[in-house]
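Report of the visiting student (M.T.), summer placement. My assignment was to run the structure pipeline on a short list of targets and document each run. The first record concerns Response regulator.
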Amino acid sequence: MKPHDDRKTVVMVVDDAIDSIRMISDALEEAGMTVLVALEGNQALTISQNITPDVVLMDALMPHMDGFETCRRLKENPAFTDIPIIFMTGLSDTEHVVMGLKAGGVDYATKPINTTELLARMDVHLANARMTRSARSALDTAGQNLFAVDREGNLLWGTPHVCRCLPDMAHPDYQVIRTTLTEWLSHNLEPGHQMPLHAMDVQHSVEYLALVDGREYLLRLKTPQNQSSATAALRDRFQLTQRESDVLLWIANGKTNREIAQILEMSPRTVNKHLEQVFRKLGVENRTSAAASAIRLLATL
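After the run finished, the structure tokens were exported:
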């Protein structure tokens, strides 16, 4: 397998068997990859604090901390959300396969390792991970700082910007965020409902968007500065009033007139009047065109 770009693929191999490491490392280096070696779980966690590999090959059974616990600990780091972890072990019974997948692994290779098959599996998972990261980076570029949590407030995934704004799940500060989100999400929230959220010494707000598949709460992270900058940019570019720029910003965020009225504490009739002026100043005929114009501008901020 060859790397897909000029940067070498970085692989972290976590295994306590020297012979196994040597065989796998030779195959990976021959394929043009950079190999990081950890002989046990704690070493892998130490490496992960400074380097984020593209893929992890994880031995399931190791002394001190097994591969399943190591995988769970790695996945607490938001930087590892999309990093594929492939388990390697001589055990192939259903119990251990399930344990590996539940811990956050994406695949399972049985020892003795067939390196040709392993490289092919890595190629598939690396391609999927890169597409996922590209999609989430695109959301950030479009100003859609999204993330998802489960009903206990555990972070399932987030765009790069969100991951930079929130502490690692293992950090004590995230325990406070988890408790806050859990209590908030226990209510029957309507889309568009917002709540203040303090994270990393910055005052944010979080907006509830939807419940996906009955288990993922889709949220948007906002900061007052971001929202203020966005409305100011819209106001200056399109010569809008403050209220017109507020309405246009929420139109760009997909809100209905009724939702905008609730957010801005005005009547739906007033929202319509502002929209008429927005359409005239932007030279468009409908909200879809107005939203598209706003999104294009906001993407450049």
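Residues 115-141 form the longest helix (27 residues). Confidence is low (pLDDT under 50) at residues 1-5. I thank the supervising group for their guidance throughout the placement.
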